[in-house]
């Protein structure tokens, strides 16, 4: 198991257009190209383990893929049955969206993943997909991978999801495209909307009315994609927190998506006192621009709304909370329990090791701002836990054990962290 040591930082000015490309958008680019006629052209695809696994699966399903190191092209040959076991690695997005895509494909498919993914709940997609005719199964009555799928005819649906999950919404939308009628999906809070934006851009009929999305089955194949994937705001946010906790520092992230369903954590950091400027430069599938974060003393904050819009950033935000004055609280975030690790437990336990007092709730936690202390903490195989505590190290020095997982989403993280401070691996 590899570990890394990070040393406390002097004030820095971080500016980068090389933050990892967006993971959610990259997965979707690879998968949705399979439904297009003609050649999709994807620039700045995230070359990290999760999304490269998705791309490999798309290849196993029959698509022709070329990669000149800069641009990936994908030409679909429909979805073909394969003798390969389709390995999604660590990615819940990969596995859940493939369930939706493959439910209507002709043939039999097996999806699997790593030791962490095989413990994560899949019933949230297998159950609604089964209810419209999909033939999906797995351990624990279809809840745990490996999953088997035999493509079937799908019925139109009107489904209200009990959770705000873009993975569930996207799986159902992919199923809807090949169902026998107009489908309606409802969710309790709006989750990230990359699927809606991309499918519309590719010519699908999708209508959104607040929390209700209507999807029409495809009459013709989708138009191919021509996209440059923007930087991932979730990855950018580690450097936003870095600037917000080191006096005199700033971080400017260029070419990042400014999609409102993705930048809520920056808004919370702003509420805590950091100075944040957003500049919109472009609009293609997604709004794209830059975000600049400047240090200012931080105050405690209560986070209990729009949780789906910042769920992935909560571990990093907890580091800002540890450096803020007062007691910060996160509520309504029970989904943290079923991410790459139980992030309520892993955040709370690691903060305690760093001398920060916390309170644990079933659906969140409280962080009492104080003085972060150097410690040796474990990532528990969770990339966002690893990167959050390395960022904490900018304040006080830190050793993080089990850092290989960072490659699932942000392979050049250490290179960029090296701009802010000294790092040893
Ligand atoms: C994602 C949706 C979110 C998020 C995950 C990526 C996506 O998960 O946490 O990292 O790309 O659709 P849920 O849909 O489970 O909330």
> Can you list the strand order of the major beta sheet?
22-23-1-24
- Uncertain parts: none
CATH architecture level-2 label of the largest domain:
Alpha-beta prism
Examine the coordinates and then state which fold CATH places here, giving the name of the CATH topology of the largest domain.
UDP-n-acetylglucosamine1-carboxyvinyl-transferase, Chain
CATH superfamily of the largest domain: Enolpyruvate transferase domain
Largest sheet: 4 strands, mixed
Q: Beta fraction of the residues? A: 25-35%
Helix content: 25-40%
What is the arithmetic mean of pLDDT? 98
Number of domains: 2
Distance between the termini: 11 Å
Shape, per Cα inertia axes: globular
User: Could you give the count of β-strands?
Assistant: 24
Q: What is the count of helical runs?
A: 13
| Small molecules bound | shikimate-3-phosphate
Category from helices, strands and their pairing: alpha/beta
How does this model look, in words?
The chain has helices at residues 23-33, 49-60, 92-102, 123-131, 139-142, 166-177, 194-201, 233-245, 264-271, 314-322, 343-353, 383-396, 413-420; strands at 3-6, 13-16, 39-43, 64-67, 71-75, 86-87, 108-112, 135-138, 144-150, 158-160, 183-186, 206-209, 212-215, 226-228, 250-257, 275-284, 286-294, 302-303, 327-330, 358-361, 364-368, 376-378, 398-401, 423-424. It has two domains: 3-21 and 230-424, UDP-n-acetylglucosamine1-carboxyvinyl-transferase, Chain; 23-219, Enolpyruvate transferase domain (UDP-n-acetylglucosamine1-carboxyvinyl-transferase, Chain). It contains 13 helices and 24 strands. With 425 residues, the protein is an alpha/beta fold. The radius of gyration is 21 Å and the shape is globular. Bound molecules: shikimate-3-phosphate. Residues 24, 93, 165-167, 170, 191-192, 308, 311-312, 335 line the site of shikimate-3-phosphate.
């Amino acid at each position: 198991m590899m570990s890394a040591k990070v040393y406390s930082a002097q004030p820095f000015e971080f500016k980068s257009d090389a933050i990892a490309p967006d993971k959610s958008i990259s997965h979707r680019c690879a998968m949705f190209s399979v439904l297009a006629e003609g050649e999709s052209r994807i620039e700045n695809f995230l070359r990290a383990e999760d999304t490269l696994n998705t791309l490999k699966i798309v290849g196993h399903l029959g698509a022709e893929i070329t990669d000149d190191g800069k641009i990936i092209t994908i030409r679909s040959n429909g979805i073909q049955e394969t003798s390969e076991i389709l390995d999604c690695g660590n990615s819940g997005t990969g596995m859940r969206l493939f369930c939706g895509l493959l439910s209507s494909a002709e043939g039999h498919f097996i999806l699997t993943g790593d030791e962490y993914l095989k413990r994560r709940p899949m019933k949230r997609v297998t159950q609604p997909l089964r209810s419209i005719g999909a033939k999906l199964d797995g351990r624990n009555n279809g809840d745990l991978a490996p999953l088997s799928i035999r493509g079937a005819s799908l019925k139109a649906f009107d489904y209200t999801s009990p959770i705000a999950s873009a993975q569930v919404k996207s799986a159902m939308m992919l199923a809807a495209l090949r169902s026998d009628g107009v489908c309606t999906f409802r969710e309790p809070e709006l989750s990230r909307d990359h699927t809606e934006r991309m499918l519309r851009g590719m010519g699908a009929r999708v209508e959104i009315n607040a929390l209700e999305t209507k999807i029409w089955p495809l009459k013709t194949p989708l138009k191919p994609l021509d996209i440059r994937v923007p930087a991932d705001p979730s990855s950018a946010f580690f450097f936003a927190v870095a600037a917000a906790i080191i006096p005199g520092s700033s971080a400017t992230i260029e070419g990042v998506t400014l999609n409102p369903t993705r930048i809520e954590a920056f808004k919370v950091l702003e509420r805590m006192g950091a100075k944040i400027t957003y500049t919109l430069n472009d609009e293609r599938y997604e709004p794209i621009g830059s975000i600049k974060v400047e240090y200012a003393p931080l105050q405690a904050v209560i986070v209990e709304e729009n949780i789906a819009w910042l769920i992935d950033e909560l571990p990093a935000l907890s580091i800002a909370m540890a450096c803020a004055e007062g007691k910060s609280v996160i509520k309504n975030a029970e989904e943290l329990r079923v991410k790459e690790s139980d992030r309520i437990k892993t955040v709370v336990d690691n903060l305690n090791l760093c001398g920060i007092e916390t309170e644990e709730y079933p659906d969140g936690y409280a962080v009492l701002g104080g003085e972060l202390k150097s410690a040796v903490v474990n990532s528990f195989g969770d990339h966002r836990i690893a990167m959050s505590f390395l960022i904490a190290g900018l304040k006080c020095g830190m050793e993080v054990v089990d850092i290989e997982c960072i490659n699932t989403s942000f392979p050049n993280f250490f290179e960029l962290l090296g701009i802010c401070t000294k790092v040893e691996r």
